[in-house]
Amino acid sequence: MAHPDPRPVSVHSAPRLAGRIRVPGDKSISHRALMLSALAVGESQVEGLLEGEDVLATAAAMRAMGATIVRGDDAIWRINGVGVGGLLQPQAALEMGNSGTSTRLLMGLVASHPITATFTGDASLSTRPMNRVIDPLSTMGAEFTASPGGRLPLMVRGLCPAVPITYRLPVASAQVKSALLLAGLNTPGITRVIEPVPTRDHSERMLAGFGAEISVEESDEGRIISLTGEAELRPQSIVVPGDPSSAAFWMVAASIVPGSDVVIENVGLNPTRAGLVTVLRLMGADIVEQDPRVVGGEPVADLRVRHAALSGIEVPHDVAPSMIDEYPVLFVAAAFASGRTIARGADELRVKESDRIAVMKAALEANGVPCEEHEDGLTIEGTGGDPIPGGGTVASRLDHRIAMSMAVAGLHAAQPIAIDDASPVATSFPSFFDLLTQLGGRVTWA
Ligand code: S3P
């Protein structure tokens, strides 16, 4: 799986990391802000939007379906929506690039509009399973023509009016939940999603913020989310908090590089996203929340992270959904802990931008870190704080989080770590390497 324009990079050991940095806007919230604004009637404004390739793919798709989306010189995005039910037939295939969130959520939107859309993506996205959204959206009445195994390229023919359903999520997936809620927006009656295990709740929060009738009830079966369809969304002003999944790299980097003292400003700490903070603290990390506040309806704080001796632990399974994107960098933290870290119960890692269990095992072993692979995770032997050997080359496999996690590992390695292609970093965190150098790290571009 190759990028058309690969960017090899080597990351060198850093003496210490220090400084204050700000991470870009939350990717999940940015996608949702564009989609819901595009469905409101009137102008919404979004500040702090993540300007990464994945989110730009969502913006392009919403434009192709009729919304006006403009970025001002003040970096505020102004979106004039078409209204729920008002999406237009796109004239060309919707190119989703690397973005699973854009694809699955937009499939939901299209499913209940009287339009047909084709979704295409890069080599990574074209291997990812879409039946998890195709199945329930078909029950609502949409029709799909997909590539073998329910993959991209695929075509969705929406049904209007669609049929409201009650659906119990068979996998803990915020993307599947959100696809159904977005389909439910233009569906008469009540669409219900039951989630046995809580996943990120940005869709629920933002739908309520835009004026949709949505309720969340805790029951023996889990969370029951009920959305009343044929909603009218009111335009909003949204401030997107910093992405905890991007902050994660610096939390681990500052924890493993001796002498480090880093403040990461404006980090979203929604409890459905903050699992890594909990797990790093269980390992002994020194993370202090400063100036806790609420930004755009989400809890936010500045995080001061100082180097600390980490200990290997057995990672509790129930935190997995609240840190599902952070496992690659948790594996890196484990490589520097004393003793063994067992991180299991995360089989969803197999179907992310890459198979993150197999790809991280290969990446760590190529750099001298012993790992054992399980169907649902890894067991990793740590150095007890010493540098890892390094000196290997990492295949990033079109997966931004593999590239960034192994770049962090390179900051405390005896030999530089080479990454065959850092270009995927642009999907979620275009300023990653600038921040790495700003904090005192060193990279060389081949
Ligand atoms: C996301 C949900 C998660 C996560 C992804 C973003 C979202 O995916 O891994 O990066 O914005 O809803 P799953 O729904 O597949 O768990």
From TrEMBL:
Q: What does this protein do?
A: Catalyzes the transfer of the enolpyruvyl moiety of phosphoenolpyruvate (PEP) to the 5-hydroxyl of shikimate-3-phosphate (S3P) to produce enolpyruvyl shikimate-3-phosphate and inorganic phosphate.
Q: Check the record and name the Pfam families matching this protein.
A: EPSP_synthase
Can you tell me which residues bind 3-phosphoshikimate?
27-28, 32, 173, 175, 325, 352
Cross-referenced NCBIfam families: aroA (TIGR01356)
How it assembles, according to the record, is: Monomer.
Write out the residues that bind phosphoenolpyruvate: 27, 100, 128, 175, 356, 401
- Keyword set for this entry? Amino-acid biosynthesis, Aromatic amino acid biosynthesis, Cytoplasm, Transferase
List the CDD domains: EPSP_synthase
Keyword Amino-acid biosynthesis appears in the UniProt entry: yes
| Protein's name in the database | 3-phosphoshikimate 1-carboxyvinyltransferase
**DNA damage is among the record's keywords:** no
Q: Please name the pathway.
A: Metabolic intermediate biosynthesis; chorismate biosynthesis; chorismate from D-erythrose 4-phosphate and phosphoenolpyruvate: step 6/7
Per the database record, which ranges form the Enolpyruvate transferase domain? 15-435
- Gene3D superfamilies associated with the record: Enolpyruvate transferase domain
The protein's matches in SUPFAM superfamilies, at most eight in alphabetical order, are given as: EPT/RTPC-like
